[in-house]
Amino acid sequence: MPDNKPRLKAVCPEPQNYSAAGLSAISEIVELVSRPIQQDDLARIIPEFDLLFVRLQTAVTRDLLESAPRLSAVISPTTGLNHIDLDAAAEFNIEVFHLRGQTEFLRSIPSTAEHTWALLLALVRRVPEAFESVKRGHWKQEPFRGVELHGKQLGVVGCGRLGSMVAHYGRAFGMSVSTFDPYAEFVPSYVDRCESLEELLLKSEILSVHVPLNDETEGMIGAHEL
Length: 226
Description:
This protein has 226 residues and is an alpha/beta fold. The protein has helices spanning 20-29, 39-45, 62-66, 86-91, 103-106, 111-124, 127-135, 161-172, 197-203, and strands at 9-12, 31-34, 51-53, 73-75, 95-97, 153-157, 176-180, 191-193, 206-209. The protein has 9 helices and 9 strands. Helix 1 links the parallel strand 1 (9-12) and strand 2 (31-34). It is globular. The model has no long low-confidence stretch (mean pLDDT 92).
């Protein structure tokens, strides 16, 4: 007998942040509306949906959740969750699926650590400035001489999954690596553990920060620390 049970309706307001294969797989299971949707427009249509797929560009606020009587789940394949009002979701019995705590799976994904290293190299070798100069038809080496990483002191704030990867890359570049992370039970053997953030700041020539944004870490690096 055919299954006449209505399919769940899902909305993905930022499909540009999902793979085509992923959206295709979702659409085989649920009735999916997948198109760029601005925050105000999402608030207007959200009462029609059972599931909400987001990443980081959509703010899942209390007001949005309160106006979604059918919503049963928010799916966000991210480790950061400050774009979702978790207290409101719990209050309205809306389950939030995310990647925070999926340590084994996330260890296989180095993209954020690699991007960190790309930004670090661009800064120390002054790649953006040199690139813009070449585009203007110049070939001046002296103004854009960078510094070598070999022998420099890398400081890593937060030595969890990402921090450890960045520390590993630093070691491969011949850097000395130190970290401050009061919550990490173990750090790589080649990483010197500092007892305070101040101690790490005093010895670091390059600093990379890999902590979640929360009440404890907000403003951790400010004018005083710099």
